[in-house]
Design a protein that fits this description.
The chain has eleven helices and eight strands. It is of the alpha/beta class. It is globular and about 45 Å long. The structure holds S-adenosylmethionine. S-adenosylmethionine binds next to α1 and α3.
């Protein structure tokens, strides 16, 4: 008998190749294979306006892996990863389960192209578990009420909520702070938040110019870079660990940080633990 892993609670949506999608743009920037001409054109235009965008994408992926290793080191064994992206090895569960095979991961994305590749995210170790939920971050209840979520994760044990390079696809009027708070309030005591986010602090004019490509090309989501204080505000209700919310290369680096990277990586990241938990 074959075992169907849980793919989530929502039907499959069609993939539109003519609309640039953040997941496919990011995949292209990372050197992946899952993108269409519209995605490549948008990504190339972004790189033309801000040539270091590729480096930023790679650094974001490296930060995600460092944050996961840190969290497993703190005893975390459960992850809710929202805005997963097209699978790129090593995926989150591979990083976590390499250290502790019993780790459980629920992946979520709203892009049908990610769903189409979700099998690669379901290659859990025998001791751990993974699941995929097709849902939109802007409707937290969609995710929090998904059957696969609490069938996979234990409600009584801490969960690390991963929001890696996804909140900058949420407009101010969609209230990203309210969205993070909705997840925060549903997390078990002792849970964590790991978040990275594009910023306009380093080169404001160039960042705005590059982000504008998403609007000009009518991408599936806008790109909203934010200043440090707004990114820090997403950690409301969490105690942020050292070194705070910083440019990604400075967050628990594996080795010496090349100074050039600080000009090139226009993303902040941080990790916090639920206050009072
Ligand atoms: C830049 S990729 C980041 C992938 C991965 N988290 C990482 O850091 O490597 C952003 C992902 O967020 C997803 N995304 C954007 N808006 C979303 C939303 N409203 N709900 C769920 N996922 C969303 C995109 O489809 C894309 O896969």
């Amino acid at each position: 008998m074959t075992h169907e892993p849980p793919l989530g609670d929502r039907p499959r949506a069609p993939v539109n190749p003519h609309v640039p999608h953040p997941a496919r743009i990011y995949d292209y920037l990372l050197g992946g294979k899952d993108h269409y001409a519209a995605d490549r054109a948008a990504a190339d235009e972004t790189v033309r306006r801000a040539p270091q965008v590729r480096e930023s994408a790679r650094e974001n992926r490296a930060w995600m892996r460092r944050a996961v290793r840190y969290l497993v080191g703190q005893g975390v064994r459960q992850f809710l990863d929202i805005g997963t992206g097209i699978p790129t090895s090593p995926n989150l569960h591979e990083v976590a389960q390499r250290i502790s095979p019993d780790c459980r991961v629920v992946y979520t994305d709203n892009d049908p192209v990610v769903l189409a590749h979700a099998r690669a995210l379901l290659s859990s170790s025998a001791e751990g578990r993974t699941a995929y939920v097709q849902a939109d971050l802007r409707r937290p209840e969609q995710i929090l009420q998904a059957r696969a979520l609490w069938e996979t994760l234990d409600r009584d044990r801490p969960v690390a909520l991963m929001l890696s390079a996804v909140l900058h696809f949420v407009r101010d009027e969609e209230e990203p702070g309210r969205i993070v708070a909705a997840f925060r309030d549903a997390l078990p005591p002792g849970s964590w938040l790991a978040l990275s986010h594009t910023t306009n602090d380093i080169q404001p004019r160039q960042a705005a110019d590059a982000a504008a490509v998403y609007g000009e090309r009518r991408a599936a989501a806008p790109m909203v870079p934010r200043p440090l204080r707004e990114v820090e505000a997403f950690f409301d209700g969490f105690d942020v660990v050292e070194p705070g919310v910083v440019q990604l290369p400075l967050w628990h680096p594996d080795g010496p940080v090349r100074p050039r990277l600080l000009d090139e990586v226009w993303l902040y990241g941080g990790v916090g633990r639920l206050s009072g938990g």
